[in-house]
Amino acid sequence: MDQSNKGVRLDKWLWAARFYKHRKLATEAIQGGRVHLNGQRVKPARMLHQFDELEISRGTEVMTVKVMALSDKRGPASVASQLYEETLDSRVAREQARESRRFQPDPLAPEHRPSKRDRRRLREFSGKS
User: Fold this and answer.
1) Which of 23, 43, 52, 68 could cross-link to 15 by cystine, CB 3.0-4.6 Å?
2) Is residue 37 classed as helix, strand or coil in its secondary structure?
3) Region of residue 94 (left: phi > 0; alpha: psi -120 to 50; beta: else)
4) CB-based burial label for 2 (10 Å; 0-12, 13-18, 19+)
5) 105-120 burial by CB neighbour count: b if 16+ within 10 A, else e?
6) pLDDT of residue 78
7) For 46, which DSSP code?
8) Cβ neighbour number for residue 31 with a 10 Å cutoff
9) pLDDT value at residue 1
10) Low-confidence ranges of the chain (pLDDT < 70)
11) pLDDT score of 68
């Protein structure tokens, strides 16, 4: 589990720590700029070392975690949770963001069901008969 002397590829570690379900998703997130290592944008093959700091954005959630252990093998969730430690500031910010979103209406939810007229307009707009 611990390979602190040589490090582990960033995409493998994100997959092993269960931040992403597939390694390909981890690679795409890194290439898309949603993962930063020590405040810098990096490539998926970058070597990760113990006590590095990662900023991971998933959807509306942003987490800042400190790498506590290294692993390139995916194991049970109990083992994966020991690979990192979320910072206190990150945890508080995520909780506050969750609470503020809780009381806001969903911006994509319609206010009411479409009427017959609305459905006709939608069909015309989409080009369906």
Assistant:
1) 23
2) strand
3) alpha
4) exposed
5) eeeeeeeeeeeeeeee
6) 94
7) P
8) 14
9) 56
10) 1-5, 129
11) 96
User: What φ, ψ does residue 68 adopt, rounded to 5°?
Assistant: -100, -30
What's this model's pTM, rounded to 2 decimal places? 0.77
Question: Which helix or strand (DSSP H or E) is residue 29 part of?
Answer: helix 23-31
pLDDT of residue 103: 83
Residue type, 25: L
* Spatial separation of the C-alpha atoms in residues 128 and 73, rounded to whole Å: 49
User: pLDDT, tens digit, for every residue of 58-82?
Assistant: 988 899 999 999 999 999 999 999 9
The CA distance from 38 to 41, in Å, is 9
Q: Which residues contact 21 (CB under 8 A, 6 or more apart)?
A: none
- Asked if residues 59 and 52 have their Cβ atoms less than 8 Å apart, the reply is no
Classify 1-90 by CATH class.
alpha beta
Tokens standing for residue 92: 């508080």
* Closest residue by Cα to residue 89 from 69, 57, 65: 65
Q: Are 54 and 83 in contact (CB under 8 A)?
A: no
